[in-house]
Write a structure and sequence with these properties.
- By secondary structure, the protein is an alpha+beta fold.
- The protein is 37% helix and 18% strand.
- It is built from 23 helices and 23 strands.
- The strands form five sheets. The chain has a seven-stranded mixed sheet with strand order 11-9-10-1-4-3-23. Strands 5-6-7-8-12-13 form a six-stranded antiparallel sheet, with no helix packed on it.
């Protein structure tokens, strides 16, 4: 949804003062309602099927998203919420019989896929779908720079806090209640992920059954289009679905589109190719921080703006088939290591826990190292405290020699996964259905041994069972067909006492015998990258980058000279530093927004009592 806001304060204020919404979805429906001391507002586009509102003079229940079951008109949140699954969020406001302030309850799904943020300050409680919305409704807030630096270094703010002091995010399955003017937090439904599963030769068959149920119960609108890439995630969802589905492919990289077209043809699906146009990606870089609160990189909110155009062209929704490398594919786990490499730049701050981000964080190590080098002494001191606290919060999880620590850590905070900004951008502007977030998908994960997920074992085996020639079509990432391979055996020698010394010697020899090498890309990817690089040199994007860097340079957290020189080099067509500069600049973009409480931002709009009704 394009935005909602709730404010609890004095009864007179609830009725008279407008609420501000950050609307990036060009919504034509904006509503406001007040109940004594609580007011709320929301924005949505006409034709959405993922907003349910039940209201009368004493109560209102709003549910946005795709729960496994919608509430009936007379059902309260207290009776509806227990056991609910799917991808959703919402709130309920109730006027208590006999007088007293109105009561409020807000909630998110068991994975927290659609966030809700809360601020309790100065006798006012604010809740919203985005941090930027709360900021627009409360002047005088301050950035939490430790969290902003964490996002620049790791690609996402994994820590439980947020980038604005005092604002908290509901955890997965979290519920917040306002009763008698006091805020209470409690835990609602969560998924049980530890079931003592054993290796199972039928894991792939069970995965197919789980995905069929998930697809049948979520992708119910035949006009919704699956975002189909040249990779394996979306291909698997389409292969599970019945023929005749609709898909869409972004023409991002040369060589990927023909693969997606092959997959669509094999599944007898209609495919619409979205041509690459550089201006389509301008909105992500200019406004992505409003979606993420600078807790993720703006370039991964990469469909922002164009999604509204899809909706206006008659596409009612899109189907989300990306697994985030966690539930099915085992990309965030490996065999347990006694001696992880502690010589990396991140290990200086996080010790052994850096191992997980270095291996599974999906954030280039050279970017992380460069951001750390750009910090001033004050910046390094702040990031040291931030990352040490993060490391201390990570609980180790091992199962039969498999280290599931980062996999479980990420599943418990899916909305902080590095690429999750893609999904957050989608739900700002269009309905999104998610087989991946269906309870059957999580149930399969919980009842499947990590050995059956390692190296895509169950996924690849399922491909062999699906037929349609899907396993014969190359995966774009590897340029190889989908074939079974022998499981990777444990490398037990890595846990021998002599391994750290041997590893250090090998690295030393390599440094002496080899010159630094630039990344080597296949020809088709190299051509695509060149097109992307020119995209980010549009005048509006460069101006935004420079302004963000200028704001950050004044914080004292970065070395002004080094940061200025890096920007100058980039403006002279050095493309190597582009991602590093944007990792830094998004913090400056957001800091300026916070300092002005969103004043002058075109996405901020008022919702007042005159637009609807009050109680």
């Amino acid at each position: 949804m394009a935005g909602f806001a709730i404010r609890s304060g004095l009864p007179g204020r609830a009725r008279s003062e407008p609420l501000k919404l950050v609307d990036l979805g060009a919504c034509d429906n904006v509503e406001f309602r007040s109940f004594l001391n609580v007011s709320c507002a929301w924005a949505r586009w006409s034709g959405s099927r993922q907003l349910t509102i039940h209201k009368n003079e004493r109560r209102m229940l709003l549910v946005e998203g795709e729960p496994d079951r919608l509430p009936t008109p007379n059902e309260t949140a207290a009776t509806w919420l227990p056991g609910r699954t799917g991808s959703f969020r919402g709130f309920e406001i109730t006027v208590v019989p006999g007088g007293g302030p109105a009561q409020l309850c807000a909630f998110v799904d068991p994975l927290g896929t659609r966030p809700i943020f809360v601020l309790d300050r100065h006798n006012t409680v604010l809740m919203a779908d985005k941090i930027s919305t709360i900021v627009a409704n409360m002047a005088g807030l301050e950035c939490e720079w430790g969290a902003i630096l964490e996002a620049a270094v790791l690609g996402s703010t994994y820590s439980p806090g947020t980038t604005v002091r005092g604002i908290v995010q509901l955890p997965a399955g979290g519920i917040v209640e306002l009763r008698e003017g006091k805020v209470y937090y409690r835990q609602g439904t969560v998924y049980e992920l530890d079931t003592d599963a054993r290796p199972d030769p039928n894991a792939a068959r069970r995965l197919g059954d789980a995905l069929r149920q998930a697809v049948q119960e979520t992708w119910t609108d035949p006009d919704c289009r699956l975002t189909l890439s040249g990779g394996l995630d979306s291909r698997l969802i389409l292969g599970i679905a019945e023929p005749g589905r609709k898909t869409m492919t972004f023409e991002w990289e040369v060589g990927e589109t023909p693969i997606a077209l092959q997959v669509a043809a094999a599944c007898k699906a209609e495919n619409r190719v979205i041509p690459f146009q550089a201006e389509d990606y301008r909105e992500a870089m200019l406004s992505g921080h409003l979606v993420t609160g600078a807790m993720q990189q703006s370039r991964f909110v990469n469909n922002l703006g164009m999604t509204t155009d899809w909706r206006r062209s008659g596409i009612p929704g899109i189907t989300h088939g990306y697994f985030h490398n966690t539930i099915f594919r085992g990309w965030m786990s490996n065999y347990w290591e006694r001696y992880p490499d502690t010589r990396t730049p991140l290990a200086h701050y996080m010790k052994k826990k850096a191992h997980y981000f270095d291996l599974f964080g999906h954030y280039p190590l050279r970017h992380r190292e460069k951001v750390l080098q750009l910090l001033s002494p004050d910046g390094r001191e702040l990031i040291a405290r931030q990352l040490q606290a993060l490391a201390d919060s990570i609980e180790s999880v091992t199962v039969d020699g498999f280290d599931l620590t980062f996999e479980r850590f990420t599943l418990n905070r899916v909305a902080r996964q590095i690429y999750f900004g893609i999904f957050l951008g989608w739900i700002e502007q269009i309905d999104v259905v998610s087989p991946v977030f269906h309870q059957a998908s999580l149930r399969w994960y919980a009842t499947t041994h990590p050995a059956d997920r390692q190296q895509d074992q169950a996924v690849i085996q399922l491909y062999q069972q699906l037929g349609r020639g899907l396993a014969d079509i190359p995966d774009y990432a590897s340029n190889q067909p989908v074939r079974m391979r022998a499981p990777k055996p444990p490398e037990r020698w890595r846990n021998q006492f002599w391994f750290p010394t041997a590893r250090a010697l090998v690295h030393a020899v390599r440094r002496l015998n080899s010159a630094p090498r630039l990344p080597q890309y296949p020809p088709q990817i190299k051509k695509g990258l060149h097109r992307w690089k020119s995209t980010f040199r549009q005048a509006a994007i460069l101006e935004t980058l420079e302004n963000g860097i200028a704001t950050v340079r004044d914080t004292g957290l970065y070395n002004r000279i080094a940061l200025g020189e890096l920007l100058d080099d980039y403006l002279k067509h050095d493309t190597v530093s582009e991602d590093v500069l944007w990792a830094v600049a998004v913090g400056g973009q957001f800091a300026k927004y916070v300092a002005t409480a969103g004043a002058g931002c075109s996405a901020v709009r008022d919702a007042t009592a005159s637009e609807v009704d009050t109680v």
